[in-house]
């Protein structure tokens, strides 16, 4: 295997992993606060179309990415009001959000079909990407580095920052956290908005970096994979990083193997593999903890302060 | 065109039952002259897919443009193949349409069911194999375009390797891969087509990654039988050549886009509706191509060398004149055994269920 | 009364906001409402479409609602629907050359069993290892789709189908009969009504129904009453899986008449919306399924008559659910202020009509 090929493969893996990582980290924080938002796919689509629309209109992809975060956070706010203030069921509201995002993005995006956009491509000067090894370090979209930094930041936040510890407390036992005097709803609101912004950013990765265009359902179900990866990572940022890159590796190697003429495994088996692996991880972790799970204890359950 | 066996007939009869609909809006019978025709279209994807369904919708617009106020059109997009399609088709038939075009393979059985219930409405189904007294079938010889792409690939590829991003191994896709490879090997006998199946018609991210995988394996031509422009964009970034699918996609990859197979359904739609207006519509089972102008090549990229342009144009001209068919022997299969003897042509019936690959295909 | 008022308010708000929103987006907002929500109701041809579309949604939603009431969150109905369809199709393909009135019932039974078997995986994981059923059942949906693709592409492909990935058409003895001659109303439609009535009676009159409600409302009381957490999970998932599987084979043997890769169209997810819109009440679900069916059928007409894009249907469905979930709180607050709710029991649940807010923290976990 030549160096060029190896670098090309590694860069593809990073490209496939980054949006899953970013959206997944957002959802991870949301779930750590005890909220399950199944609307990731919908928020990603809203982010993708907003990012594309703003980037093509202004010529500034960075502005597009920021707008994507804002628009998806706005969608997340609908979810937050419903499940936090109005205590609606989270599963149903999340599904509704995905349906909403799919529909709204298609409506907004109709005038943007069939054109391309300035991309959020490599940021380093050319001389830094002249050789394959340099390219591996400097040749990515800024979002790839952002994904790595974000992993570190989320890890630090959840494990070292006081606010992060409060967020975890809220997710593990809302009533206890409330009794101590932590603002449960405020924490969850912020977490949900953060999750939305990250989903939006991940969505814009598709429309501004990976496949610079807009078409209906551009993200093709990646939001659901991000949700699966959060579970696969058993709610840990480090494992989220590993999971996203592992997923990118498996998908890329499958395509590489096919391109090289190897077709040993039925494609359906490979496609089902991430989900089977996620179930297996869930089962193994639960078994190891003798009946306990790694999931935040309050995941998916509404909180209502006792009057 | 194709015989149905006994089992199918029984099943069909059972499914249809003795359904009848009374009190439908008054509508001139199929065979009568009309002043105006109401035509409806059913699409499997969104018209905003910039691919297969988009191309059909361009055909609808072409029809409106050509026939003006003699035709009134409408469409339903994003229709799932199955009971939803049956409901939509029936709704359109009840809605006073004279002719309904159902544009995806999976609409075949639903169209047949509804056609039996509405003998006064004409139906045309794309890319299938069943017909009825008021249901025609139409298809395009996409492979003729694939052969042109193969010619360009064979002449322009320095590596002698082309990448082919494919959706599902159905006959149409298999046919396309074979046509592309045969034409490329006619120019470069060592040409190899590397096929990657992505098991989806539309998954931009996966299509882009498949293109990257092929590129890293050394191909310098990308061809695709999936719907998104993502592979083209990957080719543009890598500085190799590629081709559009279903429509001119050069706006996505101005340098890489050599040409595209353009599904130009318009002339067929015009022909059908004109027959309807004249009271001469009869169900046909047509498999048209370049000769009938429903398949076109997008304008060749200026970057294409003159000799390649010439060869590609010559192939288009000869195909239009009926003087060229890519599936003419000798053709060997992947194992190198002769499948088609010198000078023989593969009959249409065999093409339509093609499930083997020619020599040079690596899949 | 407020139990009924919330959905009505939600639909009314959807119509109002929808009309304004689509006008702002440059479409005919009022026309959209008229075409989607009103016109189909006055067109007798659309009635049968509504019934046929609503039947599978209602059957799945009823099964899910039984679980939701007990705080068991099965969101794997899509996969269970597919497995039901596949299990019944397996029988159909094995009996293609046979005849007899026993074939169709056997297919239906296997459909139910297929759905149950798929739901047994999350049930087993939850009761033995404590694995969250939301996540495991969701993951299994994707596995089910790939299983379907595999069978269509390979082992079950119709040898005479021109190499297209789909099975042979089912024979007469394998296809659902029409119950109203001259229409499309197949056996699945009255069966959906029968399922709703049975579920209503079971929930209202039997010990099992009482168990499911009590576990959802007051888990501690349920434990005192001797209702096992494990048995509740199993009952919930078997009901959900069995009915989803039943809906699957009814669709396969009914409107489809064969198995195709396009078989799953998201009914398993839509049914969750239906279950909530119907307030987890089997009879309410029947009505909710009709309303959802209306958005599909009406949405299709609106495309042809006023050129409204297909995406609008999804926006309307989402808005309707948003508004319903939002108005739910009004119901609850009213009841809370009206009579002091006992601590530990979520307000508004005394009649078991409202969605469990899940304040009482689930069973196992």
TrEMBL record, chain A:
It is found in: Cell membrane. The keyword Cell membrane applies. The chain crosses the membrane at residues 6-30, 42-60, 66-88, 95-117, 137-158, 189-208, 269-288. One of its GO terms (molecular function) is transmembrane transporter activity. It comes from the Bacteria. InterPro entries: ABC_transp_permease. This is ABC transporter permease. Keywords: Cell membrane, Membrane, Transmembrane, Transmembrane helix. It is a multi-pass membrane protein. GO terms for cellular component: plasma membrane. PANTHER family: ABC TRANSPORTER PERMEASE PROTEIN, SUGAR ABC TRANSPORTER INTEGRAL MEMBRANE PROTEIN-RELATED.
Automatic annotation (TrEMBL), chain B:
InterPro entries: ABC-Purine-Binding, PnrA-like, TAT_signal. One of its GO terms (cellular component) is plasma membrane. Pfam families: Bmp (PF02608). It comes from the Bacteria. Residues 36-313 form the ABC transporter substrate-binding protein PnrA-like domain. Keywords: Signal. CDD domains: PBP1_BMP-like (cd19963). This is BMP family ABC transporter substrate-binding protein.
TrEMBL record, chain C:
The keyword Ribonucleoprotein does not apply. The chain crosses the membrane at residues 50-68, 80-96, 102-125, 134-152, 184-203, 224-249, 269-294, 306-326. Its main location: membrane. Keywords: Cell membrane, Membrane, Transmembrane, Transmembrane helix. GO terms for molecular function: transmembrane transporter activity. Residues 342-365 are annotated as: Disordered. It is a multi-pass membrane protein. The keyword Ion transport does not apply. One of its GO terms (cellular component) is plasma membrane. It is found in: Cell membrane. This is ABC transporter permease. The lineage of its organism: Bacteria, Pseudomonadati, Pseudomonadota, Alphaproteobacteria, Hyphomicrobiales.
């Amino acid at each position: 295997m030549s160096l060029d090929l190896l670098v090309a493969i590694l860069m593809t893996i990073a490209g496939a992993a980054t949006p899953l990582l970013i959206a997944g980290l957002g959802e991870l924080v949301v779930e750590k606060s005890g909220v399950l938002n199944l609307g990731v796919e919908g928020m990603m689509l809203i982010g993708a179309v907003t990012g594309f629309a703003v980037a093509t209109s202004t010529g500034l992809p960075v502005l597009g990415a920021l707008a994507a975060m804002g628009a998806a956070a706005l969608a997340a706010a609908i979810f937050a009001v419903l499940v936090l203030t109005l205590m609606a069921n989270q599963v149903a509201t999340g599904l509704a959000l995905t349906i909403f995002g799919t529909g709204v993005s298609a409506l907004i995006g109709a005038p943007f079909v069939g054109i391309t956009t300035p991309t959020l491509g490599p940021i380093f000067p050319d001389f830094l990407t002249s050789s394959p090894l340099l390219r591996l370090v400097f040749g990515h979209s800024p979002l790839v580095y952002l994904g790595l930094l974000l992993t570190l930041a989320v890890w630090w936040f959840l494990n070292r920052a006081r606010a992060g510890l409060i967020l975890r407390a809220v997710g593990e036992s809302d009533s206890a956290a409330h009794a101590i005097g932590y603002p449960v709803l405020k924490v969850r609101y912020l977490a949900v908005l953060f999750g939305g912004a990250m989903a939006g950013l991940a969505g814009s990765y598709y429309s501004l970096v990976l496949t610079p265009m807009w078409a209906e359902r551009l993200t093709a179900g990646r939001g659901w994979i991000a949700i699966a990866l959060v579970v696969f990572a058993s709610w840990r940022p480090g494992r989220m990083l590993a999971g996203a890159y592992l997923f990118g590796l498996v998908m890329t190697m499958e395509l590489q193997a096919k391109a090289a003429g190897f077709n040993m495994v039925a494609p359906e088996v490979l496609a089902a593999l991430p989900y089977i692996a996620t179930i297996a991880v869930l089962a193994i972790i639960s078994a190891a903890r003798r009946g306990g799970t790694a999931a935040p204890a309050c995941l998916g359950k509404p909180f209502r302060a006792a009057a | 065109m194709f015989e149905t066996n006994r089992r199918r007939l029984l099943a069909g009869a059972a499914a249809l039952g003795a359904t009848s609909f009374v009190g439908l809006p008054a509508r001139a019978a199929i065979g009568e002259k009309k002043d105006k025709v109401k035509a409806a279209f059913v699409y499997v994807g969104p018209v905003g897919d910039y691919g297969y369904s988009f191309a059909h919708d361009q055909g609808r617009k072409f029809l409106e443009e050509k026939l003006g106020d003699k035709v009134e059109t409408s469409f339903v997009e994003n229709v799932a193949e199955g009971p939803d399609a049956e409901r939509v088709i029936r709704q359109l038939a009840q809605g006073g349409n004279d002719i309904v075009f159902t544009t995806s393979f999976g609409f075949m059985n639903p169209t047949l069911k509804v056609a039996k219930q509405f003998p006064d409405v004409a139906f045309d189904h794309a890319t299938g194999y069943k017909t009825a007294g008021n249901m025609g079938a139409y298809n395009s010889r996409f492979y003729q375009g694939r052969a042109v792409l193969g010619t360009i690939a064979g002449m322009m590829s320095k590596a002698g390797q082309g990448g082919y991003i494919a959706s599902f191994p159905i006959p149409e896709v298999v046919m396309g891969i074979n046509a592309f490879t045969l034409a490329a090997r006619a120019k470069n006998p060592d040409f190899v087509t590397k096929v990657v199946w992505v098991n989806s018609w539309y998954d931009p991210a996966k299509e882009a990654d498949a293109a990257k995988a092929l590129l890293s394996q050394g191909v310098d031509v990308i061809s695709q039988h999936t719907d998104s422009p993502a592979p083209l964009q990957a080719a543009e970034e890598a500085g190799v050549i590629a081709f559009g699918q279903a429509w001119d996609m050069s706006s996505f990859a101005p340098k890489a886009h050599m040409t595209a197979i353009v599904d130009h359904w318009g002339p067929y739609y015009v022909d059908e509706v004109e027959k309807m207006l004249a009271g001469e519509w009869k169900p046909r089972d047509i498999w048209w191509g370049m000769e009938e102008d429903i398949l076109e090549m997008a304008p060749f990229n200026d970057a294409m060398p003159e000799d390649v342009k010439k060869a590609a144009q010559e192939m288009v001209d000869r195909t239009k004149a009926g003087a060229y068919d890519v599936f003419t022997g000798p053709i060997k299969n992947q194992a190198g055994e002769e499948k088609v003897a010198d000078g023989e042509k593969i009959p249409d019936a065999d093409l339509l269920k093609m499930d083997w690959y020619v020599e040079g295909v690596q899949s | 009364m407020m139990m009924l008022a919330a959905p009505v308010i939600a639909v009314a708000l959807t119509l109002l906001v929808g009309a304004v929103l689509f006008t702002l987006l440059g479409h005919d907002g009022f026309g959209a409402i008229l075409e989607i929500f009103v016109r189909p109701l006055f067109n007798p041809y659309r009635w049968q479409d509504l019934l046929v579309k609503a039947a599978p949604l209602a059957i799945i939603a009823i099964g899910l609602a039984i679980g939701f009431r007990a705080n068991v969150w099965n969101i794997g109905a899509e996969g269970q629907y597919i497995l039901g369809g596949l299990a019944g199709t397996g029988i159909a393909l094995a009996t293609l050359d046979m005849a007899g009135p026993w074939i169709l019932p056997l297919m239906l039974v296997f459909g139910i069993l297929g759905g149950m078997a798929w739901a047994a995986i999350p049930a087993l994981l939850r009761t033995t290892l404590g694995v969250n059923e939301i996540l495991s059942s969701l993951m299994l949906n994707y596995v089910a789709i790939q299983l379907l693709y595999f069978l269509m592409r390979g082992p079950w492909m119709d040898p005479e189908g021109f190499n297209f990935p789909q099975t042979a058409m089912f024979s007469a003895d394998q296809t659902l009969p029409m119950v109203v001659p001259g229409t499309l109303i197949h056996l699945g439609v009255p069966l959906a009504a029968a399922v709703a009535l049975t579920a209503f009676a079971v929930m209202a009159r039997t010990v099992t129904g009482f168990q499911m409600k009590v576990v959802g409302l007051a888990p501690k009381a349920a434990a005192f009453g001797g209702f096992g957490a494990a048995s509740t999970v199993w009952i919930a998932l078997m009901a959900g899986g069995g009915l989803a599987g039943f809906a699957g084979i009814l669709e396969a043997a009914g409107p489809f008449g064969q198995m195709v890769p396009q078989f799953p169209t998201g009914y398993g997810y839509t049914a969750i919306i239906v279950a909530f819109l119907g307030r987890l009440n089997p009879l309410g679900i029947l009505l909710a399924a009709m309303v959802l069916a209306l958005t599909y059928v009406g949405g299709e007409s609106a495309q042809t008559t006023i050129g409204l894009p297909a995406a609008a249907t999804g926006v309307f469905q989402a808005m309707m659910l948003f508004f319903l979930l939002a108005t739910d709180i009004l119901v609850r607050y009213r009841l809370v202020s009206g009579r002091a709710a006992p601590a530990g029991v979520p307000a508004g649940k005394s009649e078991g009509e409202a969605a469990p807010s899940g304040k009482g923290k689930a069973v196992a976990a």
